[in-house]
From TrEMBL:
Gene3D superfamilies: PRC-barrel domain. InterPro entries: PRC-brl_dom, PRC_barrel-like_sf. PANTHER family: PRC-BARREL DOMAIN PROTEIN, PRC-BARREL DOMAIN-CONTAINING PROTEIN. Residues 4-79 form the PRC-barrel domain. This is PRC-barrel domain-containing protein. It comes from Halococcus morrhuae DSM 1307.
Length: 80
């Protein structure tokens, strides 16, 4: 996968590999000591919040490990 600037990812649509529309990318987490990227924090679509079984942060956003990213184009695809 080619390099993509993080600021270009914010507000991109995020979908699951099964085609489920998850929401939009809110932010990325990073370990400041190692520089390792951690999770994508995804603001859920309001109509899907009860139907998707993903870990959530304290603000209700989906927390998806960066290792689950499969593709980044017009939208971000994550393994489900």
């Amino acid at each position: 996968m080619p390099d993509v600037l993080a600021r270009k990812l914010i507000d991109k649509a995020v979908i699951g590999s099964d085609g489920t529309e998850l929401g939009t990318l809110s932010t990325l987490t990073m370990d400041p000591d190692t520089g390792r990227l951690g999770d994508l924090l995804i603001t859920p679509r309001s109509e899907t919040t009860e139907q998707i079984d993903l870990e959530r942060d304290e603000d209700g956003r989906y927390a998806v490990d960066i290792g689950r990213v499969q593709a980044v184009k017009d939208h971000i695809v994550v393994d489900r």
